[in-house]
Write a structure and sequence with these properties.
Shape of chain A: globular
Distance between the termini of chain B: 67 Å
Largest sheet of chain A: 5 strands, mixed
Oligomer: heterodimer
CATH topology of chain A: Ubiquitin-like (UB roll)
Number of helices of chain B: 12
Helix content of chain A: 10-25%
Radius of gyration of chain B: 30 Å
Largest interface: A-B, 31 and 38 residues
Number of domains of chain A: 1
Number of strands of chain A: 5
Helix content of chain B: 10-25%
Strand content of chain B: 25-35%
Largest sheet of chain B: 6 strands, antiparallel
Strand order of the largest sheet of chain B: 1-2-3-4-6-5
């Protein structure tokens, strides 16, 4: 049961942790945090998102549809690249990758 | 202690509440720059030595504990004769407040159960028994983190089990705290108490495991496993009865854990909390491994967000629920409806396509659908908009195998009288969902979704939406829905099968003028006093059916245009319908720039314009399908909102109109509520009977 009593992140991963930036409308579901670090060094965006919404389940349905597709007016960037051009959820993540979830400029 | 005081490093900002032991304040630690809670023994009980001892005891016991699922104690002290405990300030809700009538989703039960069991594992390892574990003592933060509170009755034990000492229990009783039940030298809250405690036998950490079983049972089902009308009955049930089975949706593996926790004989229970934690984790892992991509994520069902400022309402007040493209507004008046108070918007920037008020079963619950880039959610408020739920998981969603995703929720419809927990919602892409637990969970109505016509329904200008739901008030098996563009469908078997009911409704968008389905119905209304009669605003034409929708007759003669969206019935007169004609599908504005409501008082044989008080020059307005409604008062109030954000009302059944408020975002829906008037349906029913006795519509014509 000790695993639940030691939630601190691994020191080894600290320097290469992957960061997810949480936009304001989703922060009620990230405990108010504007950014969160992922502990498990996910290799792909899909792994990273799975880890993100395991930790913060309220974010999932706001980012993807029930078919698992990225919502039409939501974009995800890894670094400065929109993942729609880099393999969507299969986009590979390097050490220290920064993931941004952002609403698109559209609508009225 | 009072607000404004400074206590060492702590500056007291606000009073959070008052409990049996005393008051709790929010304070700021000016050194560490963090907010804390300070529990102060009330001056009423400060002279009471046992209470003081109890408080110190609480603090000493809890100070020894450091665990993420246990509320942390920072400091204990005494000032000016007052005892205080400085503790972690927890933002969240008690588990008891999150558990609905039918309990929490299984995933949440497991998630919370694992954490509570973890807290007990930790405290038991340090020889601290909680002894007052119950759902009100378990806080859940917005992140889904459990914090077990109030080790107030915990007592340090030696490694070996020691018997209860009468002296200690007597002293506890002497405090007469409201948080404790004092029966026969026992402390704790009766429904959570283990049999050995009730029998005055030795107790140990296994009493906490019993209480954990009670909390798990309560979380899974919404009910306590042992509860009688009296303390004696409850105690009897705890001692002698088996817990009733949990609902069928609770997996057997969880039920088995609960049953073992609730073994009467402590020897038959789990012996350690860590065993319960491991068992719950095993169920949790199995459920995650077997989950599909759309399975419910674990966590609290919702966060609660601040809505509008407080609206003071009295019985008889009229409340307009106004949904706009950028948020929801509430507009209040008293029964005279002479002046209006407007508050809002709630859901800043989000489109609110439908609103509803559920006043059944003593509820005062508002519902709203909100839509934005981030998806569509149903939100509810039990305090007239002051706070709103914001569910973690989309509450209405298509099963994964459907291959479609929810775009919008267009309509909410409450069940009939006698179905107080039933709700329906109509969505885009066109589908119907039903809830039988007052909106907690929703299921797709497969009978309609699997209809062979569905692949041939085509989107109207607003998308392929199921926008109108009409229940037959008498026949519980019959209901109607309208789809744009699909037409009217009726079920006679409670939703299992559906038949297109569009005979006589003419279309212009395909060569076949009277197709079986595919009509672009804009609005459908039924008067509860004459359930066989329906009125319909089609893309081209206004229609009436006197045979439950089997056949339709055009009733557009006398209207300036047969195009339009909004339509509503008079609350009592089943011959009377209001609508608001729009010039055409190409020019979707009021004809000639004149804003006029049209009314028939003879079921469509003739129409009269109602324009007094409405702008008659340059008013190129549009009123959408759900943006007109009536209240149940006499004389009836009629209200509508425009796409240009103006809300008009008439309190004399349409003779004259006034602007209630302008400058709103585009209005999508207007619903009316008469507060504390759930009996209106009974009234309608009574009048329906009277009308039935009077006979045909023709006899009613001279009524006014």
């Amino acid at each position: 049961m000790g695993k639940r009593e030691a939630p601190a992140k691994s020191e080894a991963n600290a320097s290469v942790a992957i960061t997810v930036y949480i936009p304001g409308p989703l922060r009620p579901f990230s405990g108010g945090r504007p950014q969160v670090e992922l502990k498990n060094s996910p290799a792909t965006l899909r792994d990273a998102l799975d880890e993100l919404w395991k930790e913060y389940p309220g974010i999932r349905d706001r980012v993807v549809t029930e078919e698992g597709r990225l919502r039409e007016h939501i974009n995800i960037f890894v670094g400065k690249e929109n993942v729609r051009y880099t393999g969507d959820f299969a986009t590979r993540l390097g050490p220290g990758a920064e993931i941004s979830i952002l609403p698109a400029v559209s609508g009225g | 202690m009072k607000v404004g005081d400074t206590l060492g490093n702590y500056h007291v900002h606000a009073k959070l509440g008052e409990g049996g032991m005393g008051a709790v304040f929010r304070a700021r630690d000016e050194v560490l720059h963090r907010d804390v809670a300070i529990k102060v023994l009330s001056s009423r009980t400060i002279a009471d030595k046992p209470a003081k001892e109890l408080l110190l005891h609480e603090a000493r016991a809890a100070c020894a504990l450091s665990h993420p699922n246990i509320c942390m104690i920072h400091q204990v002290g005494e000032t000016g004769g007052e005892l205080y405990i400085v503790m972690e300030l927890i933002a969240g809700k008690p588990l008891s407040a999150l558990i609905g009538k039918d309990g929490l989703p299984v995933e949440s039960v497991l998630r919370y159960g694992v954490q509570i069991a973890g807290a007990l594992t930790h405290s038991h390892s340090r020889n601290v028994i909680h002894r007052d574990l119950k759902s009100p003592n378990v806080m859940v933060t917005p992140e889904g983190l459990v914090k077990v509170l109030d080790f107030g009755l915990a007592r340090r034990i030696r490694k070996e089990v020691v018997p209860e000492t009468a002296r200690t229990l007597d002293s506890l009783q002497a405090t007469s705290e409201t948080t404790m039940e004092s029966t026969g030298g026992l402390t704790g809250t009766i429904p959570y108490m283990a049999p050995e405690l009730l029998k005055g036998q030795q107790s140990d950490q296994r009493a906490d495991i019993w209480a954990l079983g009670v909390v798990l049972y309560e979380a899974a089902s919404g009910k306590l496993p042992f509860l009688g009308q009296t303390v004696l009955e409850t105690s009897g049930a705890i001692l002698h009865q088996l817990p009733p089975p949990l609902p069928s949706w609770v997996p057997n593996s969880l039920w088995a854990i609960v049953q073992r926790c609730l073994s009467k004989d402590p020897q038959q229970r789990y012996q350690r909390a860590g065993e319960v934690q491991a068992a719950l984790e095993a169920v949790q892992s199995a459920s995650v491994a077997g989950a599909t991509t759309t399975s419910a994520p674990a966590g609290p069902a919702t966060v609660v967000e601040r809505g509008m400022r407080h609206l003071s309402l009295k019985d008889g007040d009229v409340l307009l629920l106004v949904g706009t493209m950028k948020g929801a507004f509430l507009v209040r008046s008293n029964a005279r409806r002479a002046s209006w108070e407007v508050i809002g918007p709630a859901f800043h920037g989000q489109a609110v396509y439908t609103l509803a008020y559920d006043g059944r079963k003593g509820r005062h619950r508002l519902w709203a659908s909100t839509s934005s880039y981030w998806g569509t959610f149903l939100r509810s408020s039990d305090d007239f908009g002051r706070t709103w739920t914001n569910p973690h998981q989309a509450n209405v969603k298509f099963p994964a195998e459907c291959g479609v995703s929810l775009k919008n929720i267009w309509q909410l419809c409450l069940g009939r009288e006698g179905e107080p927990d039933t709700m329906y919602c109509g969505v885009e892409p066109a589908a119907l969902f039903v809830s039988h637990d007052a909106g907690e969970s929703w299921a797709l109505v497969r009978g309609l979704f699997d209809h062979p016509h569905r692949p041939r329904w085509v989107p109207g200008n607003g998308g392929l939406c199921l926008h109108t739901i009409v229940l037959d008030p008498v026949n519980r098996e019959r209901m109607y829905i309208a789809i744009s563009s699909g037409g009217v469908y009726r079920t006679e078997d409670g939703g299992a099968t559906w038949q297109a009911r569009n005979q006589g409704i003419r279309v212009r968008h395909e060569p076949e003028r009277y197709p079986e389905f595919g009509q672009c119905v804009h609005k459908l209304v039924l008067h509860p006093a004459r359930p066989e009669r329906l009125f319909l605003q089609h893309h081209w034409g206004v229609y009436r059916s006197d045979d439950h929708g089997d056949t339709w007759q055009g009733i557009s003669n006398g209207l300036p245009s047969d195009f339009g969206f909004a339509m509503t019935t008079h609350p009592r007169d089943s011959e009377c319908v209001y609508l608001l004609p729009i010039e055409s599908d190409e020019f979707r504005c009021t004809p000639e720039g004149r804003l006029r409501v049209y009314r028939t008082r003879n079921a469509g044989a003739s129409w009269e314009p109602l324009a007094r008080g409405l702008p008659q020059k340059g008013a190129y307005e549009t009123v959408l399908r759900d943006a007109m409604s009536t209240d149940g008062l006499n004389p009836a109030g009629i209200y509508f909102g425009t796409r240009s954000g103006e809300l008009f009302g008439s309190v004399d059944e349409g003779k004259s109109w006034k602007l209630i408020v302008g400058g709103l975002p585009p209005v999508v829906c207007v619903k009316t509520v008469v507060v504390g008037a759930p009996a209106s349906s009974a009234k309608i029913k009574a009048e329906a009977n009277n009308l039935g006795k009077k006979g045909s519509s023709g006899k009613k014509r001279g009524k006014r």
